[in-house]
TrEMBL record:
Keyword annotations from UniProtKB, A to Z: Cell outer membrane, Ion transport, Membrane, Porin, Signal, Transmembrane, Transmembrane beta strand, Transport
Keyword S-adenosyl-L-methionine: no
Endpoints of the signal sequence: 1-22
Organism: Mesorhizobium vachelliae
Cited function: Forms passive diffusion pores that allow small molecular weight hydrophilic materials across the outer membrane.
Membrane topology: Multi-pass membrane protein
Record has Transmembrane as a keyword: yes
Localization per Swiss-Prot or TrEMBL: Cell outer membrane
Name of the molecule in the record: Porin
Alphabetical list of Pfam families matching this protein: Porin_2
Phylogenetic placement of the source organism: Bacteria, Pseudomonadati, Pseudomonadota, Alphaproteobacteria, Hyphomicrobiales
Domain notes: Consists of 16-stranded beta-barrel sheets, with large surface-exposed loops, that form a transmembrane pore at the center of each barrel. The pore is partially ocluded by a peptide loop that folds into the pore lumen.
Membership in a protein family: Belongs to the alphaproteobacteria porin family.
Length: 390
């Protein structure tokens, strides 16, 4: 064996060893690319795709602080017991609220699948939570509850596929035709019950025509007492100048009917007006075994007597400031007036100052049904609201 042969053999051995080691080398996997949240603009601003799905989600809500004063009858003020001498006196009615809202949307072969939820958390005092009770055993006044966490409320939780909606909503008797103006206290003369579970169908015929049929459970003493639901139906025509709408409701508990019609007019970009009238039968509302439905009131006809009327408008002074007014009157001669100024300090933060006046009509007094806790014939109050929407 010569030197040349030795060198060639050594080189071949090195190549073989290095090849074997290469076969045993560990392969490091490439990292998967991060999946960033994608914007979904199909349903409006604020939506994004839930990662790994075709569902679009939006999260929002508001934080609100209210401070009210005046009489109980206008829902603004509160009463309290002086902790030193036990006298009854007025006090602020305050409430802080955090509201969480969620929206989802997804396109399917059967139409758009949507959900909406709204949950509210509150802390504050009620109209009489500051009142104390005299304890003769001790000679002192036992303090009332005062300001406290007033619980969590589920205001909306519904699912909608195409035109079919099921779940927790507010009655179509109010939502379809529209609420009574842009004032805080819009129920000085009430215009219908709100909370209910529903099975609804919305129909959009095009050209501004729409309709709704809603089977409803009601709430509290207005909850259905059999397998027969309350029924609401409505039609609406909407154009650039405004809209005309009407709803009819059947109260299955009392077998009574109520209806409302409404006209909205957009006078111009800054000025809008609306008027709404209601009429309801009350032949079977004389059952006094329940406190609230007694004396001519039910799930839908909450106003006094057979008829009621509401009206008002909004005037925008500029992009930040608007004036809102609502007036209401019913068959029992109940009167309600509410007016406010809403000022947008910065986008998403609005301060609203409102003044309210309520006159309890003779019909309510004669029927022993002074509504909304009014303790006097004439009641007034005010409220200031700070609200941050997000």
């Amino acid at each position: 064996m010569n030197i040349k042969s030795l060198l060639l053999g050594s080189a071949a051995a090195l190549i073989a060893v290095s090849g074997a080691r290469a076969a045993d080398a560990v392969t490091v996997a490439e990292p998967e690319p991060a999946e960033y949240v994608k914007i979904c603009d199909v349903y409006g601003a604020g939506y994004f795709y839930i990662p790994g799905t075709e569902t679009c989600l939006r999260i929002g809500g508001y934080v609100r602080y209210d401070a009210g004063f005046g009489d109980i009858g206008s829902f603004d003020g509160a009463r309290a017991t002086d902790v030193r001498d036990g006298s009854d006196q007025g006090t602020w009615k305050k409430n802080a609220r955090f509201t969480l809202k969620t929206w989802t949307g997804q396109e399917t072969e059967l139409g758009t699948l949507k959900t909406y939820t709204e949950t509210r958390f509150n802390f504050g005092n009620s109209a009489t939570s500051g009142r104390a009770t005299y304890n003769p055993a001790t000679g002192y006044f036992d303090a009332g509850a005062g300001a406290h966490n007033s619980g969590v409320s589920l205001n909306f939780a519904w699912v909608q596929l195409g035109g079919l909606r099921v779940g927790k909503d507010e009655s179509a008797f109010d939502t379809f035709i529209g609420y009574a103006g842009n004032v805080i206290q819009d129920t000085l003369v009430p215009y219908g019950g709100f909370d209910t579970n529903v099975v609804q169908y919305y129909f959009d015929a095009g050209n501004g025509f729409s309709a709704v049929v809603s089977l409803e459970e009601g709430y509290g003493p207005f909850t259905i007492d059999s397998y027969v639901p309350h029924v609401v139906g409505g039609v609406k025509w909407t154009q650039g100048w405004g809209s005309i709408a009407g709803v009819v409701a059947y109260d299955s508990n009392y077998e009574e009917v109520a209806g409302k019609v409404r006209l909205d007019v957009n006078v111009n970009d800054a000025f809008s007006l609306w008027v709404m009238g209601g009429y309801g039968s009350d032949d079977h509302y004389n059952d006094t075994s329940f406190a609230i439905p007694a004396h001519g009131r039910g799930m839908y006809k909450l106003w006094g007597g057979n008829w009621a009327v509401w009206g008002g408008g909004t005037y925008k002074f500029n992009e930040k400031t608007s004036f809102n007014l609502q007036a209401s009157y019913d068959d029992w001669k109940d009167i309600g007036l509410a007016a406010n100024i809403a000022y947008t300090v910065v986008p998403g933060f609005t301060v609203t100052a409102e003044v309210d006046w309520q006159r309890v009509g003779q019909g309510a007094i004669d029927n022993g049904s002074v509504w909304a806790g009014a303790e006097k014939k004439n009641n007034w109050g005010g409220i200031i609201r700070f609200q941050r929407d997000f």
